[in-house]
Amino acid sequence: MVYKGNKVALDRLKEIAESVYGQLERSEVPHLELSSRTKSNIILDTDHDVWKYGEDKIKRSAKDLGGATSILRTLYTVDFIGDMIKGGKSSTLREMYYISEGWEKAKFPSQDESNKLAEDLEIITTCMREDFKLRPEEDGARVMGDITIEETNRKGEKKRINCKDDVGDSGYGIPYNVEKEKIRFKGINAKMIIAIETGGMFDRLVENGFDETHSAVLVHLKGQPARSTRRFIKRLAEQSGLPLVIFTDGDPWSYRIYASVAYGAIKTAHISEYLATPQAQFLGITPSDIVNYELPSDDLTDQDKNALKSELSDPRFSSDQWRSEIKLQLKMKRKSEQQALAKYGLDYVTDTYLPEKLTEMGLL
Amino acid sequence: MSQPFAKTMAKSQKEISISDFFAKNRQILGFDNPSKAMLVSVKEGVDNSLDACEEAGILPTVHVKISRTEKKDRFIIKVRDNGPGIVKKQIANVFGRLLYGSRFYAIRQSRGQQGIGISAVVLYSQMTTGQPARVTSKIGDDYPCHSMEIQINTKTNRPQIISDEVILWDEIPHGTEIEVEILGRYAREKKQSVFEYLKSTAIVNPHVEILFEDPEGELHRFQRVTERLPDQAREVKPHPHGIELGVLKTMLHYTESRRITSFLTSEFSRISPRGAKEILERSQIGDKKNPKRMNIEEIQTLYNMFQEMKFMSPPTDCLSPIGDVLIRKGLRKEIDSKFAYTVTRDPKVFRGTPFQVEAGIIYGGELSPGEQVKILRFANRVPLLYQQGGCVITHAVERINWRPYGLEQRGGKGIPVGPATILVHIASTNVPFTSESKEAIADVDEILDEVALALMECGRKVRSHINKKVKLKKISEKYSIIKEILPEIAKKSAEITRRPRPQLEGVITKIMNVTVIDSGLNYREEGSGDSKQKITEVAIRVQNYTTRDKRFKLVAKVPDALLQGIYPDRHRIRENLIEWDVGPIPPAKSLRLGFTMVGLEKDDVDEVELFHSNLTGEVIGADPL
Description:
The structure holds two protein chains of two kinds. Helix content of chain A is 41%, strand content 18%. Chain A contains 13 helices and 17 strands. In chain A, helix 1 (5-25) packs antiparallel against helix 2 (65-87). By secondary structure, chain B is α+β, with helices and mostly antiparallel strands. Helix content of chain B is 31%, strand content 27%. In chain B, helix 4 packs antiparallel against helix 6, helix 9 (260-267) crosses helix 10 and helix 13 crosses helix 14 (445-497). The longest helix of chain B has 53 residues, at 445-497. Classes of the chains: A alpha/beta, B alpha+beta. The interface between A and B is medium-sized, with 26 and 25 residues.
């Protein structure tokens, strides 16, 4: 998806209001239509090799109170964003939620609702929420490795930062806007990108100097990665052509982290081609690793089991390899964290586990 | 051993009196523990008072007072009524002699079946505190009022009068008061408490007023809601299918008939002379046999023949149900709720015994939605507070799948959960209790089925009440859409697009798309004295929120009452139905209808049932005919 800019967003938002007004003029019950955001409505987009929303639509109609209120909220939000764009301001999603306090009947009951509406607007307008001058609360995560980034700071100055030499041990912090007007990649001196789920493991790899010994760019995902992190990884992988591996805990929730990086999240499937990196490969911890490396493990909880079962019907996990791994885990009923590798000593992950796995994957 | 053991035993064997026996087996009377003893004492006193008042045709007013004494766990219970009073000679017998009374033979629906009687309370009091009971009774203004202290001689089962004085008691023209001191425990917040018992009693005895002063001195008042005394239950003769061998023996012993033929035809219901002849022929007993000379084999043969042969069912008009309207009023006054429905089934028969089931359900209001439904059980107007799990009423509740009726129930079995209270009353000439303590009714199939049928009818009404509530919620949501949200949507979209505000009428009709029929009742009284008129006005409004003209038939089901002032004119009256030809009502317009009922008491009707035919689309407030 190309960057459309605020003007396009403004026009598209106004179209929403035009459409509602037109319905009222024609004595039709006001309604809005948008893609259904469920697991059953994501299909593989073969052009981009990512998972996107299918044909299923949901209709918000003023025939019921929920639908009517939602249409009213949409109009208020459209009006608010319009004012923001015209005034050259931006706000966080949380600020928008608080601003809605003054909207009376259109007030959001929780921030979840206002966040969802921002996503709804993205789907209807095919713009990005960044185009609406809305930004998330959470910052992106950290990067460590021999790449050089040119970032335009708030004063409009271009600054070059090498993510190995110009940063401390915590690495380079990914900003919320990672588009071309904000950052550009100037030099990449690496053989692979490794995205890591937990901060503990990221710091372990940094301390053990894995980025230098194996010419790797390490990216901390910070759990389920923020949009900017996924967009950053996507741009980096596309521009550099480097292989990307995902290193997480060995449980169903971590597999979803991988899926959202590789194929897109169900919630944001409308912008999958913009966020997802289909060439990403899952490194581990796999259920087979738990067995092969005899890792310390915990019992699966009922939620874990349900999550695994739900993944069996998730199109993003329909490959034979994923299915057999998930079935194996359901059978052995165990899960392990990535830091369980410390059982064999602090250097085991960098000296043995990662080299073995990367060789297996043909990356070493 | 110098002499047979039986002889040694005989020295210690002596006739024990009935009082002595009960003194040693107090749980049979229900005095198992101090808190139950408190409850049973109050209950026997109140039952006694109510029976006495009703027999004399007096609307009962009963005062119950419980006070603490200086001694731990000892309470004084006073029960006072406005009944007919007791003549001096009988006072001591009624209160000081176990199993004394006129009902030993009588087969009829009575409270007295429920317990051993007030004399047991006197006995319990005497055993636990050593205090005699004080009974004060007055039979009329022109007669002396006696106040006596009475004890029971447990060896002879005879009353002992400790003192007797004539006092002045001019608060009421007649009545009786009993005062006992017992060892007991008082619990306020309990399912099986005196308070709950009195409240339950007030529910099924809406003609009774009860005043209760608790040990803390707080006065609770359970008000009378009807001036109508229940019909006196008629005494009936036993039916051959409903009799036990032992009772047959006793009847044979005490009968005044000289011949077995006349014994059979005169002491039983539904045995005709021809039937008697057949019984005797088949039992090979001579028809001139003296009933008192029957040997045990003959009695057994006779009894077996009773079971084998078919007889007409016993008469059922001897029962006195409370009536659905009065149960509803009783429930309504004691429990705050949104919806009440009650049903009185036709009398039925089990094993030669007539019985009748009444049930009620209340729903919503202050009742808690997350708790098990409370079950109020009654036998012959007396609350059953113990052994809920072993009772046929509970079993019937548990057998029904309540989920289709809108209550939660795990696995479709067991006591349902929801904001409801269930009431079941079983009236019978012989309630089949599970045990002597008379706290639960046995699982008799015929009773189980009747209770279940009554409850399912209640369930269906709850379901339609909930449906109506859901519909009303939907309509109120639609009102808030068209009144609050839609105008805002119009305003905001006009603002953003910089255009004039659009007209909304067309959209409003499309959003509502419903015909709303609502009705209200208004009760008032006109005039006074004999010319007083009780007037219930009914107002109905039909609102057409659709895009089409509405023309249909509206039917109101009305109770038995004088109907007046039915409007508009295009209507017919058929039995209990008023039928109107309504319309055409244009879109967004409404029509008013109504009528007046004369002669109904206040709260006799909660709402008028409305039906429609030929009305298309969604309708709120009336069911299809």
